[in-house]
Write the structure tokens for this entry.
Amino acid sequence: MPTIRSIKTPCTALIVLGWACLLPVRAADVTGTMTLEEKVRLVVGTGMDFPGAPGAAAPATAVEMPVPGAAGGTAAIARLGMTSMVLADGPAGLRIAPTRGNDTDNTYYCTAFPIETLLASTWDTELVYRVGQAVGNEVLEYGVDVLLAPALNLHRNPLCGRNFEYYSEDPLVAGRMTAAMVRGVQSQGVGTSIKHFAANNQETNRMSVNTIVSERALRELYLEGFRIAVEEGQPWTVMSSYNKINGVYTSESPDLLTKILREDWGFKGFVMSDWFGGSDPVAQMKAGNDLLTPGTPDQSAKILAAVREGRLDEKVLDRNVARILQILAQSPRYKGYRYSNKPDLKAHATVARQAAAEGMVLLKNARGTLPLAGKIKTVAAFGNTSYDIVTGGSGSGKVNEAYRVTLVEGLRSSGLSLNASLQDLYAGYIKEAKARQPSPRQGDLMAMMMGFPLVEEMQVDADLAARMAQEADVALVTLGRNSGEGKDRQAEAGDFALSQREVSMLQAVSKAFQAKGKKTVVVLNIGGVIETASWRDLADAIVLAWQGGQETGNAIVDVLSGKVNPSGRLASTFPMSYTDVPSAKSFPGIALETPGSERPATDGWNVRVPAEVVYGEDIYVGYRYYRTFKVPVAYEFGYGLSYTQFEYGNPAVGPTHFTDKVTVGIDVKNTGKVAGREVVQVYLSAPARKLDKPKEELVAFGKTGLLQPGETRRLSFEIKAEDLASFDEASSSWVAEAGAYQVEIGDSVKDIRQTATFDLDKELTVKKVNKALTPTRQINRLHP
Ligand code: BGC
């Protein structure tokens, strides 16, 4: 009897499966030998034994994971030689259980890499590829087959609690970063699952919210990053999201999972649901959501009944099974890979530290405050997170790392001394504040989801600040934030805005140090955008450190000391205030009245409350909005300072009449005194005759290597027809309008150094795609 085992010699086998020999799957060969029950076992995951999880399989039915702490897996079917496929999070590194019951001799820690928002700020796809290689190696060596990452939902609104897991407000940056990460991870012979597909831009009512959004905003923004990632990265799998789009759960949407993903983009892998996502397993099967994760007995029963009762064609199951098997055939467990459980954590920590430092953004540096010069010996470190650093967000994106380097540890190992009395004060305060917190129950999902960040409560008054200004050479004030799965952030003080206690600390420190002619440096240890405009004058320098993973403290000190010249640039805008955010009025939508019941409260993270959110800002997200509507921002998209300066020269943009592409060349010269790297951004301003357009859009970017003082490097880019085009809903096609296009080359969306124009003589239909995901009602624009 043919079994999947025979695919182990793929090109000679009777059954041709797997991409190893690039032949199409002959599903019937394998599925023909499987019973209906076996097929159902394959398309419904093995469950999840996690207290507190919504609808989690009872422990008795959840199969024990081959790798403890993994989020899920597919069933092993011994009769057919099918091994299980182990699936584990996540976007900042692998998440598995670090210790295992009786196995007291071994530990299974993983490297906590920087959060994706920091990685995007590197604008360095080659570096992100290397991070991917390191993560992928841990996936492989810990016996996992598919990493549930990277995640690439857009930063539609700064309050989304999971923004730290996502890259950017711009789909080109998000798509390129994702593709690089996917290629890096998959270079190790394991898979990825790019998520959450699609328009999953908030946590409030996450399991049920109906995202109402135009086809154009979907195509140009919310789907575009996924398109790039699928085409350039070829991920093994895609994870559909929890939300609905225009009335249909994404996991039940044939438009999304078949018409767009497979027909328009040519995706060849399989789709899995987000954990417990969607509501109708039969509709999910039909739509092309091939695997239901983590999988419940109820889902299996429903699928089985539907086939038996003729409501679900078994051929649909065969198709889904074949897609899963095709990936199984390339998975390391199936191939019999003997994993070591001993990845090179030391080498990976080096990659993590380098990536962290490269993605930190210098927001302000008045009068050369940084790098800290030789005369600085003693540092007064204020703020809880100087001592209790946040390495990453909470929820499924959290990594169980073996250690984390705090800022003060980083300072100490770089040879700087800390003011001891201030350190003692914080140590006492933090110990006491932590003791007051409820301790998370072991394995409690809710606790893992929420995380327990410390609120800044210690009072730093004028006396303490004055004493420190006397004793120390410089003040470091660290402001920390954390967020995570299941909960969005708040616009209020203490979250998006600084708390009163934080402001008074900054005021006291800044005043006292200034009085002594000394500087105040603010370090932002945050996972998402916060308000900076109201307090930035109090700081001499501001380093946006993000959450840099386990090496955060060392990486911050690398930047503060000048060992690394900061080259991070913002991949999302910092607005002046929350009310300036284009989606401020609609985020996070509303819970809907249900007939005969009280208006339901907004859910926690797993209750399904009928709710909707209307993307009334349409295509005007992030810089596309601020620039077009001339709304001033605190720090614009693409912004970031360096310890050196760069000059842009010899631009060459041509030809002047577009036929199939325009090439852009530019010299970047380091005109300053220290070595550094520059990020060059290419924007395009398109004619807006038929369709309205953002003032400009990013079409290419690149980063120089380390340029020594006086050194010049030439960067080149290509602008293709698709970069000129906008999505025309009327014809379901990408259309480039005739007229003059302006190319803008700069080091931020505002700081444009060179411009050039070219013409497109005749309107061009670049690509026609399927009509899909049409809203069922009129969407009122928030910004006409
Ligand atoms: C998250 C996913 C994650 C999955 C498995 C879900 O709650 O939304 O991102 O991969 O859990 O842990």
